[in-house]
Amino acid sequence: MKNIVCLLFAALMTADIASAQTAGGREEPIKYGDMEHWVTRKIHESAIIGGDTKTLYEIGPTQMIDGNKPYTNLGGSPWGTSNVLAKVAGIVKTNNSVYKDTRGSGHCVKMTTHIERVKVLGLVNISVLAAGSVFLGDMREPITGTKDGPKALNWGIRFNKRPKALRYDYKVQTAGGGSRIKMTGFSSKSTVPGKDYAITVFLLQKRTEDAKGNITAKRVGTMVVKYGTSTGKWIDNATYEILYGDIRSNPKYDAATMGLRSTDYARNSKGKSVPVKETGWASADETPTHMLLQFSSSHGGAYIGSPGNTFWIDNVRLVY
Q1: 54-76 burial, b for 16+ CB within 10 Å, e for fewer?
Q2: Which pLDDT value is given to residue 124?
Q3: Contact indicator for 130, 113 with CB cutoff of 8 Å
Q4: How big is the CA angle at 85 (ends 81 and 86), to the nearest 5 degrees?
Q5: Is there a contact between 266 and 155 (Cβ–Cβ < 8 Å)?
Q6: Tens of pLDDT, residues 127-179
Q7: pLDDT band at 302; cut points 50, 70, 90
């Protein structure tokens, strides 16, 4: 039983610089990026782990779904979340780290880093650290095993424009000091050096699929920003320039967060999940085929972060 629950948790949790300014420009909202419309899901976890009813939120047309039904994006919503339903060896468990939150008379998205715990009949007690994130793409549910997690994420949406900047409203609450923790559920808690940051990652890619369904990409545009200080209030109309082409000589370039990627997954034309390998930098005037955007309450990857780190986002749009 302990091994099954460990697998369940791993399945759930692996499904896991620029300066702001208020420049002008024509704005184009990303669909549902005003965070005013939400799908509310009522998931009933298995009795063997407590039988709780959990509420999961998804960004999409306002409606309620009651029952343990795999979710697919509704209403043309381009947004996926780290809220996910897992079912391993018949046991249903959820991870809930993204919430609909109130902002004034409207709503926003709240992402938080927290420790997810589960007990089985009082005998097994497992704790895993999970960050909250929302991204352009979707998640294939239910997660059924440890290898399922990364492959369940379909990163990016089709996109062929060249915006100048990304703009949104945000608020940050940081937690922890100069180090983070790592909790995988398979081993004891450990300390990871380095401060935890909330992070925004925006990428434009030109993807190519070969006859075997393999996907490669050239990096067209890049924008990454990290937040390590609590704001105490909302910052409206934060605007971040998108850098085009090979930016390795740009003073804003950070290899750790802006370098070429090879661990993201997407579904190819055959519906199969395959890794997207970035093979180089596109020319500065190239037109992309896909846009990737992720907001996350922690930046260190699966199982790593500071509990309490919280990132609020609202009114996401592109600037031309």
Answers
A1: bebbbbbeeeeeeebeebebeee
A2: 59
A3: yes
A4: 130
A5: yes
A6: 888 899 999 999 999 988 656 677 899 999 999 999 999 999 999 999 978 88
A7: confident
Q: What is residue 141's predicted lDDT score, i.e. its pLDDT?
A: 94
245: exposed, middle or buried (C-beta count within 10 Å: 0-12, 13-18, 19+)? middle
Contacts of 109 (CB under 8 A, 6+ apart): 35, 59, 98, 99, 100, 101, 134, 295, 312, 313, 314
Handedness of CA 43, 74, 160, 166 (dihedral sign): negative
- Among 163, 227, 165, which Cα is nearest to 200's? 227
Q: Which two tokens stand for residue 286?
A: 């190239």
CA distance 132 to 240: 22
* Token couple for 266: 């997407």
Cα–Cα distance, 70 to 301 (Å, whole number): 25
pLDDT in tens, 219-241: 999 999 999 999 999 999 999 99
CA distance readout (Å), 284 to 222, 262, 290: 11, 21, 16
Per the CB < 8 A criterion, the answer to whether 164 and 242 are in contact is yes
253-257: long-range contacts at Cβ-Cβ below 8 A with a sequence spacing of 24 or more?
254/17, 254/224, 257/17, 257/199, 257/201, 257/224, 257/226, 257/299
